[in-house]
Write the structure tokens for this entry.
Amino acid sequence: MPQVTANGVTLEYERYGDPAHPPLLLIMGLGAQLTLWPIEMVEALVARGYHVIRYDNRDIGLSTKFTEHGVPNFRKVALMRLFGLRPRLPYRLTDMAADAVGLLDALEIDRAHVVGASMGGMIAQLVAATYPERTLSMTSIMSTTGNRRVPPARPEAFKALTTPPPANATLEDMIPHVVRIARAIGSPAYPAPEDRLAERIARDFQRSFHPTGSARQLAAIIDDGCRRERLKKVTAPALVIHGVDDPLVRVEGGRDTAAHIPGARLHEIPGMGHDLPLELVEEVADAIAGVAR
């Protein structure tokens, strides 16, 4: 698979479709490899006339790891931010936004449609707010603003996502572990079949297993704080997609995001949780293509 050096790190990426078509950059969420973008979604966007790029964020998949920095103290990070202090971290969410722009630089792409899911939505928001000259449009999916007044994750969803896998986990350990997460945060109206989940888990485990990267990415999210004022600087056409039944990042987070981006459209999907069900690929791809047009 191809890699580039961008913003001082190595990023693994994949490209689909005609490079002459408008570029569309997909940014995935917390602890998720590029493969969590369903290939069906990629193909649907290519079919709508886009040159699609997906990549591994730093500290996950086949991109640069920061293992030597260990696991951060989340309580300390949160307390410092509460008092307006900035903790020492190996990287911040703004660095991850700079990675996205660095990848575009390495691929000699001046401007792109930027689409992010969950943490990737936060990164996409920062790209659009900080690099308006590089952003053709921005779509934030199942994400939020960092506003502490937005309702928090449901306890069972948060616990499932933040429970670490067993030490020295094998594939046999990881399948039930990840299935529990998927069931706790996924779309109640579109539950993924067990065999499809197991196949995806096995594929991703064999590609890369790096659980501590998620912890450092989560610290970067906590450290970034509230983005509402920064979102007011977004000038590109913007779309916010959110599942009405998302138990992890509640729909109010999507509404808060849309409310603070000038002219943003809000597309709510009943029955959708914190995942990208194959049954919703066409609807989501149509929405993204709509704002991109």
The chain has a mean pLDDT of 96. The longest strand covers residues 9-16. DSSP finds eleven helices and eight strands in the chain. Residues 3-153+212-292 form a domain with the Rossmann fold fold (CATH 3.40.50.1820).
